Amino acid sequence: MSILVCAEHDNASIKGATLNTVTAAKAIGGEIHVLVAGQGCQAAAEAAAKIDGVTKVLVADNAVYGHQLAENISLLVAELGKGYSHVLAPATSNGKNFLPRVAALLDVNQISEITKVISADTFERPIYAGNAIATVQSGDAIKVLTIRPTGFDAAAATGGSAAIEAVAIAANAGTSTFVGEELAKSDRPELAGAKIVVSGGRGMGNGDNFKILYSLADKLGAAVGASRAAVDAGFVPNDMQVGQTGKVVAPQLYVAVGISGAIQHLAGMKDSKVIVAINKDAEAPIFQVADYGIVGDLFDIVPQLEKLI
């Protein structure tokens, strides 16, 4: 039994979600091969070779994979996947984009957002916004799985010495072209991988009031998130959204400010190690999952908290 893990990377380094996916592969058992597909991605391949538990790194270095177009990546992964019992990718926006295409090309079912491995063919995944856990067994010859990074610890990024092998496949679907991208620049940590997250909700009142959260986050070295209500109200951009339809996070510390705790938001952060809630409504659902709660006006409490820090 052998497992193909599709690496999340930026051509220069491996993203943290790949390490969580390798841990899931270890739980399944068998040889673990990591695919690094990109352009000028040798540095990422060398980093992948050092991951503990990885036995081989496949490198598809070609211009057609330079911008991670799902139409091209899926053709490559589907072709390689024929030789594996399992094909895994992190349940990130990128993994969710290409892996369903891979499953369709292989004519198998995809099992999404795995949070636990029971056996090589049986897995657990959350349903109903995390209110229930489904145990799913697959009879497909090739199991295609997206892995929720927050469900697994990260594998050690060093300690491995896997062989690196070039892949000559240059699959160009010819159905899409890369036009451009706008990258958000911030000195704060990336939301999905941050150890501390400070999030604001509808209670912030408006986008300008998020400045007090930015100030607190800078003191803590934290990322800043938001509830869907805050995003829908136009307070902040949607790439800050935490929740069922946003990013799923599990930091060491999650500070929820002015967030009531709708079930959709809880689905994206309830696995955080320590949850602190600040809300003027003592009956807010967020307090049911919080380890520490403060009932009061956030505009008084947050500045006091920042001064203490």
Would you write up a description of this structure?
- With 309 residues, this protein is of the alpha/beta class.
- The chain has helices at 16-28, 42-49, 70-81, 93-106, 211-220, 228-232, 263-266, 298-308; strands spanning 2-6, 31-38, 56-61, 86-90, 110-114, 116-119, 122-127, 132-137, 143-147, 163-166, 196-200, 223-226, 253-257, 274-279, 292-295.
- The protein has a seven-stranded parallel sheet, with helices on both faces.
- Helix 3 (70-81) packs across helix 4 and helix 5 runs parallel beside helix 8.
- The longest helix has 14 residues, at 93-106.
- The radius of gyration is 21 Å and the shape is globular.
- The mean pLDDT is 94.
Write the layout of secondary structure elements.
Blueprint (H helix, E strand, L loop, with lengths): L1 E5 L9 H13 L2 E8 L3 H8 L6 E6 L8 H12 L4 E5 L2 H14 L3 E5 L1 E4 L2 E6 L4 E6 L5 E5 L15 E4 L29 E5 L10 H10 L2 E4 L1 H5 L20 E5 L5 H4 L7 E6 L12 E4 L2 H11 L1
Helix pairs in contact: 3-4, 5-8
Summarize the structure.
With 309 residues, the protein is α/β, with parallel strands linked by helices. The protein is 25% helix and 25% strand. Strands 5-9-4-1-2-3-10 form a seven-stranded parallel β-sheet, sandwiched between helices. The protein has a five-stranded parallel β-sheet with strand order 12-11-13-14-15.
User: Roughly how many Å apart are the termini?
Assistant: 51 Å
Low-confidence stretches: none
Compressed to H and E, one letter per element, the order equals EHEHEHEHEEEEEEEHEHEHEEH
Structural class, from secondary structure content? Answer: alpha/beta
* Oligomeric state of this protein: single chain
| Rg over CA atoms | 21 Å
Please give the count of helices: 8
